[in-house]
Backbone:
């Protein structure tokens, strides 16, 4: 029964559409109707600016962190990484936003922040180094996913390795259109770095 509650709450946490809430509440804008149409932090940055983008990024990270902590809160043996994955699925396919959500990056990061804080720091650094060098948010996200896989191998934690491979697969799958645009040199670059 407790495990079922954790599954349900983790998915609902992930389903909270931070970008939609911030856009509609503070700007009167549905970000799904602007930019890429995505509910994630990148489109929020592009559509609403740095302040809103930062708020959405933090909120999306915290969804993963809180979801991963649910088993401890409930005193359950349910694995924190599984609870985190459910939040990531909720983020990608949110019940509160017509099952059209973000690209799994920030919420995945939040799961790792709870379970393995050092990897979160490494991914944060690798993301911004890549972003500085390439100016592509999408490519930086995918590079960070690869870094996460490499790091996880050194932990020798089979559960962590499996979950990171799964989360990385989500990131690559959700960036399919971005990959095509990068190849065609039509992917927008950031201008603020």
Residues:
């Amino acid at each position: 029964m407790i495990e079922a509650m954790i599954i349900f709450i983790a998915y609902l946490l992930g389903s909270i559409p931070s970008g939609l809430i911030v856009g509609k509440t503070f700007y009167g804008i549905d970000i799904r109707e602007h930019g890429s149409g995505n509910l994630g932090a990148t489109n929020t940055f592009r559509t609403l600016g740095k302040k809103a983008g930062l708020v959405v990024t933090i909120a999306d990270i915290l969804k993963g962190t809180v979801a991963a902590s649910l088993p401890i809160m409930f005193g359950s043996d349910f694995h924190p990484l599984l609870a985190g994955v459910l939040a990531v699925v909720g983020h990608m396919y949110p019940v509160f936003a017509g099952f059209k959500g973000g690209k799994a990056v920030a919420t995945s990061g939040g799961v790792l922040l709870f379970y393995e804080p050092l990897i979160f720091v490494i991914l944060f650094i690798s993301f911004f180094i890549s972003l500085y060098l390439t100016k592509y948010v999408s490519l930086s996200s995918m590079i960070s996913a690869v870094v996460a896989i490499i790091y996880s191998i050194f932990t020798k934690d089979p559960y962590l390795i499996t979950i990171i491979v799964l989360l990385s697969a989500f990131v690559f799958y959700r960036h399919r259109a971005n990959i095509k645009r990068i190849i065609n040199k039509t992917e927008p670059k950031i201008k603020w770095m």
User: Anything to note?
Assistant: The chain has one domain: 2-183. Residues 2-183 form one domain. The first helix runs from residue 2 to 15. The two ends are 48 Å apart (CA to CA).
